[in-house]
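Q: what does this look like with NAI bound?
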Amino acid sequence: MTAPKVLISDALSPAAVQIFKDRGIEVDFQPALGKDKEKLAEIIGNYDGLAIRSATKVTSAILAKATNLKVIGRAGIGVDNVDIPAATARGVIVMNTPFGNSITTAEHAIAMMFALAREIPAADASTQAGKWEKNRFMGVEITGKVLGIIGCGNIGSIVADRAVGLKMRVIAFDPFLSAERALELGVEKVELDDLLARAEIITLHTPMTPQTRNILSREALAKTRPGVRIINCARGGLVDEEALAELLKSGHVAGAALDVFVEEPATANPLFGLPNVVCTPHLGASTTEAQENVALQVAEQMSDYLLRGAISNAVNFPSITAEEAPRLKPYISLAEKLGSFAGQLTETDIKTIRIVYEGDVAHMKIKALTSAAVAGLLRPALADINIVAAPSVARERGIVIEETTREKTGDHDSLITLEVETENLTRAVAGTIIAGTKPRIVQIKGINVEADLLPRMLYITNHDRPGFIGRIGTLLGENGINIAHMQFGRDFEGGNAIALVGIDQVVGETLLKEINTIPNVVQVKALTF
Ligand SMILES: NC(=O)C1=CN([C@@H]2O[C@H](COP(=O)(O)OP(=O)(O)OC[C@H]3O[C@@H](n4cnc5c(N)ncnc54)[C@H](O)[C@@H]3O)[C@@H](O)[C@H]2O)C=CC1
Ligand SMILES: O=C(O)CCC(=O)C(=O)O
């Protein structure tokens, strides 16, 4: 196996380079490349992995050129610079490092709060200009002030903790903050309008989503208390910059501290130059400690995926540990083959996919197995589908996916049963793993049969009558088709029977039609795996 190749296109700590090298991965460190999208598009096709911070914009155009890319690692939290749907559609795992820079970013928000409260940047500039304007700068005390946190997740919670330590009164708006967590943090959970009306300082800590974009809109800002101070160390675009500039000029907003901007790099901005505006160039995560944390973590995660199939902190696929990966691998193959089997037999629109995991497999990462089964199922219709994208593609097509887990009920230690429901029929197929690694089909339409799935197979349904086996063997032999194996099953003597025939050559349409004329054959289908 040739060593995977990773491109680092942003200013990551060199610690990442060392990790990749130590793990036997080839690495190109081009920290300024993220800003050159033409060059990035030109070379991205050479890499299996791309490690980035926020300067690299991984657009669908870049992804279209990323023909070998398997993983994008964001050394940081926000993945809004990656087109996740486009990456998912191409089967590229996108991972981030959700905790490595949270303390540092929370500390930046607190630093911004003090900078605003005491006008430190302006006082510094004035003092160093020799002005000694002692009477110009009159600050406000932080103790006892009401801090309104919008978004109380990892970073917001750390800000809350520090603010409580500073004896502030902390209120938080976050629809996903539980009452218990709020109590634990010592914050009062409130609605947005309540926060806007009460907070003396507001700090934003949500991701950028369609719901949070412009959360501090012109209308929302108008509801704030006169003299409010606003801090944004999350994402530009959460605040309406034009409206904020107007309110700063009118004096309604007493100060604003911004680390992030709608347009980055921000070289011109409506807020620049206004009184008591403090700006930093997206430095929230920029400490030696945080950068080392995220670089090491992203390099470890990407290496684990490229070398061992382990997935952690992916935003578009369930996690799989390095220990689980080898155990899961044969089950992923089984799930994909079961899906493929059912998919090749399904000619009308699928309504529902039901997957039952029984026994040991029920305790594995079934989300990953379901993704594999759905990919296998949709592949006959959508050749390029991959297991990362499959569940979202299925949902887009209105297909309902149902998963059930239960303890072992039959002979098999692990059993996966896939049932597909279409307008006209419901078809079920089940399989297991034997000898630790080998996928086997063990049941089709409720009929027991134990068959390996070779690259070329014939699936035949027939009435259980004497003479069928001899005739099919002869017909295939006469047409130069070598039989690798042949497995049979039936529901009862003289009832419905099935045959799975592993073959070494392709069976053409004419021969398929001829097989269909063998007495008692109901249906014959050539399958590939
Ligand atoms: N300035 C910088 O350098 C950095 C900025 N960030 C930004 O900070 C953001 C937050 O990071 P974390 O706290 O780690 O994320 P997180 O996911 O732990 O927390 C985000 C919180 O926002 C809440 N939220 C989501 N939608 C909301 C809505 N409509 N209204 C109110 N709350 C909502 C969520 O429930 C969650 O609790 C990141 O998404 C990133 O964009 C992160 C690191 C560094
Ligand atoms: O990498 C950086 O400097 C920015 C960090 C950031 O914005 C994030 O982690 O979301």
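The first strand starts at residue 5 and ends at 8. The chain is about 35% helix and 25% strand.
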